[in-house]
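Hi R.,

As promised on Friday, here is the backbone we talked about, encoded as structure tokens. Could you run it through your design pipeline when you get a chance and send me back a sequence?
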């Protein structure tokens, strides 16, 4: 934002020198510059006043923030709210983040079962493949149904079916979208995937992730989802925490 303000000032000065050197004697021009700067800087100051630590976000690590701004989503393919987030909100969130902020998703392990580990591995495989959008959507739908009905506890005759009981079941899902068993196993059983799952579990503990979806900014600040009143407020908070908050 400071850079934008400087560029705007330079334009108003008609490029008087490489760094806008010189004095401005026209009081109307000075007033216009002051107004321009205040308008550009207003979002940063208003965000600082709008978002309160302990209410809108919580510090979850005493370590220094990540060197690059980033947003991390912790989720589960078994979570109905996560499915809704994926379908309805994440596209808009990603599109409206500052272009310097990267996005990553990590699967939680609340139950520590063999099949949950395999489902976590499936996400690692998805993230390794070039076009992983359809696979993510398919995994949600296989587990939860086309519209999440399998995890709608209010639905008539609701039962907790387990459509995925083993890696073979997951491989069958991937095979329908062109991923061979050999391709799948090569990634799922790689040391890189083992390291990734270990990191996800470690960060789940470090950041005290107890429910999903959960969002952590710069490996340091967790969004208090109960405080969020709108999608725009959520996006503004992420941008503020990633780029401005000290």
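Update: got your reply. Pasting your designed sequence below so it's all in one thread:
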């Amino acid at each position: 934002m400071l850079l934008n303000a400087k560029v705007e000032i330079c334009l108003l000065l008609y490029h008087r020198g490489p760094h806008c050197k010189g004095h401005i004697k026209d009081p109307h021009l000075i007033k216009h510059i002051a107004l321009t700067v205040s308008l550009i800087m207003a979002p940063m100051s208003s965000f600082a006043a709008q978002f309160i630590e302990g209410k809108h976000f919580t510090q979850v690590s005493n370590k220094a923030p990540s060197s690059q701004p980033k947003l991390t989503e912790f989720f589960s393919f078994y979570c109905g709210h996560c499915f809704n987030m994926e379908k309805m909100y994440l596209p808009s969130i990603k599109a409206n983040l500052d272009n310097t902020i990267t996005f990553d998703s990590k699967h939680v392990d609340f139950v520590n079962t063999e099949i949950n580990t395999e489902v976590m591995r499936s996400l690692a495989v998805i993230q390794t493949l070039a076009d992983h959008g359809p696979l993510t959507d398919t995994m949600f739908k296989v587990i939860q149904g086309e519209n999440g009905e399998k995890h709608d506890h209010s639905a008539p005759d609701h039962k907790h079916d387990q459509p995925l009981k083993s890696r073979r079941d997951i491989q069958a899902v991937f095979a329908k979208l062109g991923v061979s068993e050999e391709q799948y196993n090569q990634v799922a059983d790689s040391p890189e995937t083992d390291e990734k799952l270990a990191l996800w579990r470690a960060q789940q503990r470090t950041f005290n992730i107890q429910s999903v979806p959960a969002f952590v900014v710069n490996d340091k600040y967790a969004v208090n989802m109960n405080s969020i009143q709108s999608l725009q407020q959520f996006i503004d908070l992420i941008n503020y925490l990633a780029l401005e908050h000290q």
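One thing I noticed while checking it: Confidence is low (pLDDT under 50) at residues 1-42.

Thanks again,
M.
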